[in-house]
Fold this sequence. Notes:
By secondary structure, the protein is α+β, with helices and mostly antiparallel strands. 36% of the residues lie in helices and 17% in strands.
Amino acid sequence: MSSLDELRERIDDYSDTVFAILGFVNFYRFNDASGQLRxxxxxxxxxxLSPSPAKATTPGGNKVEFVTPDFGVLDPLGPAVLGDAxxxxxxxxxxxxxxxxxxxAYDDDLSGWPCRDERVERHDIVLLTHVTxxxxxxxYYQRRVGAGEIQFNRPFSIVSFVRSxxxxxxxxxxxxxGQLSDAAFDDRLRRGVSVPMAVFVSVYSTVKIYDAExxxxxxxxxxxxxxxxxxxxxxxxxRALHRNQKLEVKLTADEIADxxxxxxxxxxxxxxxTERQPQVPRRAWCVRACDAxxxxxxxRWNGDETKNELTVYFRKLDDVLExxxxxxxxxxxxxxxxxxxxxxxxxSQPEKPPSEGAAGPTKGSRTAGAAGPTTET
Length: 377
């Protein structure tokens, strides 16, 4: 597989993970009977939840400041839900236990939920994984439970997902192991439920990023299409700009992170702005993507070494993603080599980096019938 094909595959994985999180939480938000979204159901992603005293310290003696589930659902009429979404698992099963140990960290009386007393009486725990891996993951989990290495006190389920690009594309979800507290929903999910892609287009179209750093070309594409193009279009020269002409656009890394966070992250669904909801995307992700644009001759950093103010040489592109794949491939290769070296030195490197400026580990340390009906199979 070429480096560009590998990048395309990683971008698809990232995008599918976003869709999987959105599709699953939509089950709790959408009322099939009324055809309305339940506004009282709160959905959050990457929220920092504080452990109870019993789990505030790891077996190795390290302090745990907080955990950050990939997704959370707070339903005032039913049990809450926390979970992680992993489209793929490493080929080496010795690393799989880390994912389940992170999930067991959610099996706790956590505080910091988006409600008045910041606690809930009960909640389920869910692992979302791709259909191609789900059998192996379930088998692994059951072996580890039998060996006494994994234990959940709260309801735990493993749910598979897969994207189908048929004439009417959809995401299909099916419970493969465990039981959800909501018996009716558990039975529906056991039989399999499909979410039409039209749901994502009509309701969740702006959510494109979650609290894991996306591949560089994807990040650069978002910056170009959602921040740089709107800025360039404000210029009176924009409409008459020819393909071979350039237009200078000035902006800052802080502005990029803020605009993408407000418009294209899960902040759209959970607008609460507190210290428990870290900024997504992180500024460092934006800086790395801008570094790739600079290295590719499409921009330059202005002034000092803080890497904040950027001048972009905007030009109209026929295919933004393909351009960013070409521009970012060298930077992505170098970054992967650095991360591989670091992981050799530190085997416990988490899948997602800790939030900037925060202490403690996070990952290992997502109305009117617009939502549309789901389809059971």
